[in-house]
Amino acid sequence: MAVYSKHPASAPPSPPIREKTGHLMLRAWCIFVLFMAFSGTAWINAFGELATAVVTIGGGVLTVILWITLRPPVQYRRLPWFALGYVAWATLSLLWSAWPQTTAITLLLLYITTTQALFIGSVLTWRELVRAIASALKWVMALSLLFELWVSVVVGQPILPGFVVGKADDPIEYWSRDNLFDGGRLQGIMGNANLLGPVALLAIIVFAIRLASGAPRRVLLWGWIVLSAYLFVRSSSATAYVAAAAVVVVLITVLLMRRAEKPGGRTKYYVAYALVGVGGAVALWLLRDAIFTALGRSADLTGREGIWEQVLARASERPWVGWGFATPWMTADPAFDVHITDHGVLVMQAHNMWIDVSMQLGIIGVVLLALVYLAFVWRSWFFAVDRPRWDQRADRPYSPLTLLPTLVGAILLVQGLAESGPLLLWGWMLVALFGAKIKQSPHVGVGPAEQSAAIERGEAVGADTPDPAAVGEAPLPPRQAGRGA
Whole-model pTM? Predict the structure, then answer.
């Protein structure tokens, strides 16, 4: 006689829990939002400012509707309050702004970017978040190569924004310079090599973390890493090269600190890390002529020092509160009278986020931004170096996913020295997103988003129930899991 038992050891394995269509669509929407942030100026170059504004504002409205409808669990005491304080100070600048129209429009972009970041962090688990970022970056990398290939093979000459074939007064105006086969710098769909380089570097990091996490389709992931590395090298961005060096230093230090077994075992690594960081910065400054000449750049960072001098002179006129929020600069606004040209083209940023903020929001704004990055770097650092722990168990394995925020911080801090990119689009989105996510879910597999995903799958979860699959542990049998809930 056959005997059937419901004991987990003898019961037939159950199929994996399938995600509902609604959650799959939600994740697809998050990927689209991230793609918009990473691709940046590609939308303006392809479709124009009006169409880009409609898509951006419409996307923000849809996200608010989804947030109200889904009502994901959020611990409001653990929001990134320094980032929200910076947004609040930027909003107050409307009261004294010398260019109120520019301030109002760019504030709307800041609101939308911040809202999208908080929403994505609240509805996706850590694994889903890294997977979504990887998917968005795949689109950016693939479209950048296909775009450059189309320009070189089909068009056969440089093109201007709007797919216009014509002669530009200066190469800086081209969307693509048709450099794929002649060894020149590639600009990708963003139309700017200095924007493509950091995004390609980020893509390499994300795909490598996916590999280390045991993601499927490993051969394809290696292919994406090779493509991203190719675009990174062909963008020939000096800022991205320096950022890559910083990423390597941070990664090595984190991995060494993870090996420390005694409380004081990390001290020597902190000292070495500080010496390398300070020594590298001093060497970069003293040897900048030789370094930038080797990279094919001028010692003044391709004219940036001249831009910084003019912006700082303007900032000194209103040192404490600045002239009003304007990220990015709207040079078409008649009231915006900061007219600085580079190769005959009006620039739309100060090419340094700290100098840019000093002009817009004064010393108070710079202090708030410094607090934003200090809190972000602090939390992301210990998120990476500390072993995951939420109970008495102290031997859980590290997750490769926890490396991403601190490596992103390294990219943005270096990029912010020569670009204002970290103040908007994917730079600000990832700072707000990871800043909120680490506070809401300080351990991979634990937090409101993980609970929300489990509820979406129809699982019963407790307030502090971790997702076993996300932390690399075998799930408990149903009765034991119920006791721990």
Answer: 0.88
